[in-house]
Predict the 3D structure of the following.
Amino acid sequence: MKLSDYVIDFLKKEGARHVFEVCGGSITHLLDSLYGRKDITAISMHHEQAAAFAAEAYSRISGHIGVAMATSGPGATNLITGIGSAFFDSTPCLFLTGQVNTYEFKFNKPVRQVGFQETDIVNIVKPIVKEAHLVADPNKIKYYLERAVYIAKSGRPGPVLLDIPMDIQRAEIIPKKLESFKPHQAASSRISKETINRIARLISASSRPIILVGGGVRISGAQSELLELIEKTHIPLVSSLMGLDIFPHDLPEFTGMIGTYGNRYANLAIANSDMVLSLGSRLDTRQTGTRPNTFARGAKIIQVDIDPRELNNKIKTDIAVCSDIKEFLMILNKNIDRYDKAKIRPWSKTIKHYKTKYPAYKMSTTADILPNFFMDRISDVLPDDTIICVDVGQHQMWAGQSLKTKQKQRFITEGGMASMGSSLAMAIGASFANPKKIITVITGDGGFQANIQELQTVFHHNLPIKIILLNNNGYGMIRQFQRQYFESRFQSTVLGYSQPDFQKVVAAHQIHAMRIEKKSQIEKAAKILFSDKKPMFLEVVIKEDNLVIPKLSVNKPIEDQEPYLSRNELKSNMFIELLPETETNAKRKN
């Protein structure tokens, strides 16, 4: 049997029904093995970066391994951004790269290159994969494939790369004689009864508890167990950016997104808590602020994460539990039946007051489209089971603050790598993972241009992807940063930036395009956008000076966001003692 045929058979058995790729000379054998198959299909993208993003989304939506494939040299290196995204956001993917023949590979020779397009991709990507291997022996292909999938899915998931030279791809093998991979018995991560009882006591003793959900809850498939815990306790819940679609936003316990660009009411809630149960969150500075020692400083903090290296890494916790989130919640739910819900009613009432006093947006008399208002309104017309793919930039934060995610909806975006231009490619992967659903893209004019070529992929496959582009004529997030710290010297965000006529570009790809500029146009445009399952594009023009607020500045505790509350007003919202001012701030009222 030809080795490349064996590789494709293996991928199919692992549940991959699509392989995202851009053709190239060094993967022609693998491509040929995909030719004519009905059970697994090659999806030809127009840039390898987009193929990697598509594979990442495919994995996140389907629950199976996501696969992207590229040729040697520039094809392989173009995958790197997507590989990094899968690594930082813990997504199990298999990246296959072609390589020059083994007799053309330099190995330990002190030269730069021997074969044409030869590039040592294995050593290049090692910092951003769980493993990477050059397959130099055809009889080891089964071992490496089985190992790759096991490693990608086990523990904290992530990507694995296999580099397969051309002479290995075309080698003849005897499948029955191939060496298998035998995983070592994983060490048990059993949670002691003493630890669970201690956690249950802390929860029961608290009067201002908060549960913080991160992306790890979704990765472990623990949504049902989380819902059971909330139904038992009615503890308020806040979310990280990566955890936004884990808990329905219409339930009263949902208290918004925390962090640098989090909802003010969510930040006030976690700042004033006396117990934080953090589930599957790294507790990085985008959530805690740049003074982590001030984060939830009046609370007992319990951190649960499958990666032991993340425990007590940035925040000193009171209890650190290395565990799969689903396993942890199943055990906790059995030990928390006698929770006194009445004890936290005053706390829930306080949080309701925060939400009323500091909403994500305020009504305006202006005819212009305000971003948070738009996100709130578009939530009402999004299909109940749509998959929302959000790009990186101001629109990502406006969506995080104001989009109301329903129980069957998904909200997928990039957290760790945070690459502009990821959303359209991710939407393509999500669409192939679940072809029955409408996919909604939320992007910006800057990020959209980074992978705009994938409009052709959308048209070619007639994918049910609805693209919403918020156009503020520039890289708004960096422009906001320049406004705050560089005296509005808008180098490369205004000066040097340009954009095409998106209506004409999208129409050239034979996709219906619309454009709105006034809030009175939102409802009609939204109805047209979601009226069928054909690809469609909506450009939403917003003012260049729209800011993402509230915003946490450097060296401020999480409760003290811009625009600043007066010192007296901030104090009136606090159960814990205010920190002294770290610097004179002319923006604050006395």
